[in-house]
């Protein structure tokens, strides 16, 4: 721009000089009347503007072309997971989940994230997933909500493959409490009812109570109408997590997924949430991802994952007897608790 | 109808603060303060820019006379070929000079503007970095960012073009009026009839147009906030299948934006035709009255042509003056917000006679310390305790019991509102802040990773440490093995929200960072986030290395850490409930006993 305008002005000025020299000469030769020369001065002005504008527009055009290409790149990206034409759109899922020999590879360059994972979870049962970072715990959850499709193997809910249900129906029957509780810039009330905007106030309060969030919400200046997000007040990590739990409960889902969701609360609150969740979990299939054994020791089946493979499986007691990976994790964590096996606590 | 109602409720789904740029009345003191930022350039860029402005203005003012009065009237009418040739070469020469000076003017003015903006932003950032925690408690990161970026950007135009163009335009306007009067007072007065109209348009209509563009900006910022949030929260949205509802919301925000645009462009479109109209009226007057003056022989054809040139040049400065005026008003609003930050004093500051201490021993004492964040509710009630140098203190209690507050007071992020905090027997308000903080390291629960390599992230603890020292520290806390296993080792790029490191690995990095800093006092906010077991073992071992020989204040969650502490302080609602070591407190069967039991039961029973 800084080069463009002075140049344009300069070109216009050259035109004027040319007009003056040639026009002046013509007038002196009597082949042009002085009045006509004067008229030319105005006419040259009219000619200059469109020329200047043309340069400007060409410049704009090349900028627009570059932007357009980038836009098209996004618009052309394919929705990889879509509903089939005859997918079931409405209804409640019972929550009987079956994984049979499921493998997943995110991209060709990466190693397999899951390899030959099989398990069965009936309604009302709880499945615990434990393992180091990158062991494949989250991949199982991603597959269940159909954010990715397995590279091989089958996943079924209530006896039908996932594709049998529409994405909307599938996901609104799965309540997810993510590891990082993302809340939106809105009231606490709309955040809890995010997945179920038609929920009544009673349902919202009920969900909050079950997530042990009601008490602290009532202590806030505007209670359920308190703004969160950039203009709202900052909640502590534990409070956010409880709202995220309430959000999942508010869906009244057949399947509940707790992705390391009590990690940011203090020990007493975790205990209270767990007690309350037990009630919520009673008639749902629940998946608990955790690092702390205390979070999932009551699961009906615990899958111990390592590098995408199920290394051990069974109940807490069975796994302890197996004396393998789980037992090692247990010993490491339990060493803390041994402190308490002192006479004071014997009763 | 139902759809409409649904849309209405959906439009209340999200709320965003609008970054409102309001106009403020012109304020001389503030303007003067802004202009001071030009001061460093008063010997080079500023006079150079002024010079080019003067040259351009002078040439623009001279050429029409040369063409009209001299070329047309004298040379062409007098058939003087030589004079015409001389005039043409003079005019060409002037235009060439004008071209060069224009190029330089734009270059220098941009440079000047950029420099001023750079200085201002640097100044503001340096200042904000020094401010105390209290300042950041009261504001969201977003609102601070807006000031450092947007408000300063909005001043950019004022400095790059505004101030200097103002001078140019005033010069041109006065020049033109003076020249026109000297050529023909009658014709000048006749033409000036349009002046009030021009003025009215440029101020009044411009203001309306400006306001409607402001509205567009507000709508755009709402659109941006929503876009930003929806992309960040896309996983939640998809998991809760709210894509449709969010699309409806977006449609709403989008159409608000569209409407604002439509309104603004509509108003904008009325501007040019009106300009043309006034111009045409001026030209009509010129032709009508000018020709009669030519016939009367009061003026020559050359004067008439010069008039036509000047009339064409007249509008531009007037129109631009309106624009500069707009920039000024908006600049006032932005600069007021910027100065508000610059005038903010750090609430924690060094005393005049602050003690310089190079080496602390690390004994910490609290003497009846009280604290309140908001001046209302007390976060700490008369807390007293002592931590001998080289020993550890574990703070135990629920969220909100005051653990973090105690840690904050020791680092002097806040000053106690009552009582005294002492280090080595000296009240910390008497110790120079940088000396104090250089002896304290804080390991936060949520380790902040800066964008950069792992090497740089660890070196953050002591910026002048050699690579070997960094690696040494990483080895000491057991972080070396996982770092070396990364594809690029210590040169691996990590970022704030990246997935390269797990929570536990981040924790180890922060341990290495703290170890490298080699502080006398260590404040540790133990991670609650679950860490995979392998890393957990390393962390426990690393903690022992790190604590060795230092005074440690630990906001502890793991029972093993708490048990190993030399002293435990049990807090509840800002009050000290119990104090002692693990054994003593268990025997006391008080609150600590209950807390431990609760955890124990959670694990054993149910």
UniProtKB/TrEMBL annotation, chain B:
Occurrences of domain ABC transporter (ranges): 364-598
Cross-referenced InterPro entries: AAA+_ATPase (IPR003593), ABC1_TM_dom (IPR011527), ABC1_TM_sf (IPR036640), ABC_transporter-like_ATP-bd (IPR003439), ABC_transporter-like_CS (IPR017871), P-loop_NTPase (IPR027417), Type_1_exporter (IPR039421)
Residue ranges constituting the ABC transmembrane type-1 domain according to the UniProt record: 48-330
Location of the protein in the cell: Cell membrane
Main localization category: membrane
Pfam families associated with the record: ABC_membrane, ABC_tran
GO CC list: plasma membrane
Domain of life: Bacteria
Record GO terms (molecular function): ABC-type oligopeptide transporter activity; ATP binding; ATP hydrolysis activity
Keywords: ATP-binding, Membrane, Nucleotide-binding, Transmembrane, Transmembrane helix, Transport
Matching PROSITE patterns: ABC_TM1F (PS50929), ABC_TRANSPORTER_1 (PS00211), ABC_TRANSPORTER_2 (PS50893)
Keyword Nucleotide-binding: yes
Transmembrane segments: 45-71, 83-101, 158-181, 187-205, 293-315
Bilayer topology term: Multi-pass membrane protein
Gene3D superfamilies: ABC transporter type 1, transmembrane domain, P-loop containing nucleotide triphosphate hydrolases
Record PANTHER family: ATP-BINDING CASSETTE SUB-FAMILY B MEMBER 10, MITOCHONDRIAL (PTHR43394:SF1), ATP-DEPENDENT PERMEASE MDL1, MITOCHONDRIAL (PTHR43394)
Name of this chain's protein: ABC transporter ATP-binding/permease protein
